[in-house]
């Protein structure tokens, strides 16, 4: 059996709702529609949370990969 | 069906109004006219916002990719 | 005898419970299911600890490699 | 029609007066005479501003690209 | 005589007790069992010190290279 | 006429007195004797200034490129 | 006459006493025995200084290049 790779795990989450957290402590929740090897990520129906509080609804959201700490299917 | 890539999403936003936010918490709003694989980005009719307040009108604006956290079509 | 490489050590921990600590001082504990040469890492049954206190249960968790400081089998 | 690239936009500003802002919040104003793919940039007749106040006249100024946040034709 | 390279010096310390210090001011002491060109490093019987005080015994420890400032045989 | 490149501008300053400023706000003044594409730089007869005050005379000084913000012929 | 390169200057300092300063403001003094293109550096008979005060004698010391700001022959 071949070992799972990290991007395979992201690929399984495609089109599902995920949480993406950034180095600046912002949290985005939305549908994962795209990512690449730099972990540049695109969410649809994205919502921004700061300190657990909903701040903005952003629709489509491009997140630069190097600002991301974690991504987790919700 | 081929999976969407992050830069495809940016490409769809070309010539539309986008919000670009930086690691230093500045926010720029303008028409997305160019970007590259480093996410170096050029806006036209760019406006700078700090803490939600309009600070400057900048016309054409080149933003170095590694300072960007998110880009979102407005 | 060939010298051990760092990723060999991670590979031995695959499918075991590990602690992953980040530059932002968050600590994740879970089963190591995937990693790559950038140390992008995927945990299953991940729990988040802040200051030693359990904050969240996250299920599957993708961690961007460049935010990681240490990984240790528990 | 081919899509504009970010460095094309900088190229249009060559020999014009530009504002260059750095991650350390310093702002330089001068004539853009050179740049490269790392956004290493050279200004002529450069002036340094801190908090909007003119601090120094520097003549020729080499700015390392990775310290730059934005460049805008004035 | 050929000039010594930095990784040769690390190689001499293999299987010996070393101190590894991180950018976050944590200090790990343990047996150096593996390292690579990124200075990703693995210690055995690792102990964590904060402000000179022993905090944890960690057994096997993978340290991401880019968080390391110094490594010194003890 | 071929466009000037940033390193051409540094090359013109070779063997002249330059100011080099770092991300940690230290300023070095000395004769520019060497630089490379990473902007690793060597000064001769280097003097260190902190907050505008002369702190040390250092003779030959190697400065790692990624710590540099600006270089300007004095 | 060929232009001097920064690593040539370091090479001249090989086997001599040098000062190495880090981004975290620590200063190491010792005999330069090895360095590479990343400026990973090895000192022998290394002493650590913090705020100008001798803190530790470390013997052989490997310093990761990206933490270094300056190197100067003493």
Helical run tally of chain A: 1
Strand order, largest beta sheet of chain A: 4-3-2-1-5
Written as H for each helix and E for each strand, in order along the chain, the element string of chain A is HEEEEE
| CATH class wording of chain A | Mainly Beta
* Corresponding CATH architecture of chain A: Roll
Content-based structural category of chain A? mainly beta
Question: What summary fits the major beta sheet of chain A?
Answer: 5 strands, antiparallel
- Gyration radius over CA of chain A: 12 Å
End-to-end Cα distance of chain A:
27 Å
Number of strands of chain A: 5
Question: Runs of chain A with pLDDT <50, length 5+?
Answer: none
The percent of residues in helical segments of chain A reads under 10%
| Largest two-chain interface | C-E, 21 and 24 residues
- Quote the beta fraction of chain A: over 45%
CATH topology of chain A: SH3 type barrels
Instruction: Give the overall silhouette of chain A.
Output: globular
Look at the structure and give the mean pLDDT of chain A: 95
Domain count of chain A: 1
Assembly state: homoheptamer
Structure notes:
- The structure is a homoheptamer of 74-residue chains.
- A five-stranded antiparallel sheet of chain A has the order 4-3-2-1-5, with no helix packed on it.
- In chain A, a hairpin with a 4-residue loop joins strand 1 (17-22) and strand 2.
- Helix content of chain A is 9%, strand content 57%.
- Chain A contains one helix and five strands; from the N terminus they run H-E-E-E-E-E.
- The first copy, chain A, has one domain (6-73): Roll (SH3 type barrels), CATH 2.30.30.100.
- Chain A is mainly β and 74 residues long.
- The model of chain A has no long low-confidence stretch (mean pLDDT 95).
- Chain A has one helix spanning 6-12, and strands spanning 17-22, 27-35, 41-50, 53-63, 68-73.
- Chain C binds chain E through residues 3-10, 13, 19, 23, 25, 39, 65-66, 68-73, and chain E through 11, 14, 22-24, 26, 28, 33-36, 40-42, 46, 58-64, 66-67.
């Amino acid at each position: 059996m071949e070992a799972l790779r990290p991007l395979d795990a992201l690929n399984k989450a495609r089109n599902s709702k995920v949480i993406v957290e950034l180095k600046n402590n912002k949290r985005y929740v939305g549908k994962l529609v795209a990512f690449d090897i730099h972990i540049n990520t695109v969410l649809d129906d994205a919502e921004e949370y700061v300190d657990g509080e909903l701040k903005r609804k952003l629709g489509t959201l491009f997140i630069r990969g190097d600002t991301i700490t974690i991504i987790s299917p919700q």
